[in-house]
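batch job 7 of whatever, protein = DUF4913 domain-containing protein
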Amino acid sequence: MTEDAQRNQAIRHDADIRRDEEDTARPAELFYPNVGEFVADRFIYFVPCPTPESGRTWCPEWYRHAEALSRLDAIWRAWEALRWDAGLGMSNWWLHHVDPHVGALLNPVTGPFARCADGHQTPEPLPMATPPEGLFTDQRSPVSRDPFALG
């Protein structure tokens, strides 16, 4: 191989590496603009409506339940990331995201919709006593107490 051919090959190789790095750094384009669109267009058709005999409960006003909103957002974001994996993506999505989250969401005893069998009910927050002053420190800029820590 001539010196010019080697130089051209190296230039093409460097360009390929830069292009791959740029593609990797660029976030994947979302199919759905938000979790609401995902639930309305896809999720409600993938997950069957619970039957009365199943004991499971779904709330049509799911977006008014903080836990449901958080779990469904996680399901949507996992779908957006895993849909690109033609091999195992959807299997992983169902097994590791949908199945456990839907089980928790529709649980008739502990799920966020447990009291919504006859229509939406606003969930009660957990009771909480005010913690003693100074018990918790601001962790946004933690200062290490480790004498061997750098910085």
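notes: The mean pLDDT is 87.
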